[in-house]
Amino acid sequence: MTMLSLRNSERGPRAMLPWLGLSLLLLIADQFTKVMVLGYFRLGDSLRVTGFFNLVRVHNEGAAFSFLADASGWQRWFFTAIGVGAAVFILWMLRSHPGQRLFAFAMACILAGAIGNVIDRLVHGYVVDFLQFHYAGWYFPSFNIADSAITIGAAAMILDELLRVRRSR
């Protein structure tokens, strides 16, 4: 089997299954933890876990770092549309490149995060955040597993590109 035919055999819906499985696991973890937070915490509640980490219940009507959270409500549908569009694009990218493991890993993580936060926006009208890190009176904005998956995916995508450029030299 030549390298070209091997690459072509790694494409298509069947080759996407491991990456879609990873996305599904991350999505389930994200939604499960959010259900737990919604069930056990009231809005604004905080539980100190360590000297630098709390579990909290925060509702984010905006995007990252509460961007546009104070808008009049249109941002819910705007960020939902962006999330759906990103998910469709990522599925296309996964179908086109499932054999590129680091890249596909990155796409699977970002896909899970995008869908997790879209579900929140559709069901609740806001994203449920609950992980809070702090130090000496400084608090990093609260986030969730979906946000973590997007961040890990973005870092993996950058690493994949750096490695690709390095290989091409």
Question: What's the arrangement of secondary structure elements?
Answer:
Blueprint (H helix, E strand, L loop, with lengths): L2 H7 L3 H28 L5 E3 L4 E8 L13 H23 L4 H24 L2 E9 L2 E2 L5 H24 L1
Antiparallel strand pairs: 1-2, 2-3, 3-4
Helix pairs in contact: 2-4, 3-4, 4-5
What's the total helix number?
Answer: 5
User: What string, H for helix and E for strand, traces the elements in order?
Assistant: HHEEHHEEH
Distance between the termini: 27 Å
Low-confidence spans: 1-9
What is the general shape?
globular
Strand segment count: 4
Percentage of residues in strands = 5-15%
For the report, how would you describe the main beta sheet?
A: 4 strands, antiparallel
Radius of gyration: 18 Å
Keywords:
four-stranded antiparallel beta sheet; 63% helix; disordered N terminus; globular; 169 residues; alpha+beta; 5 helices
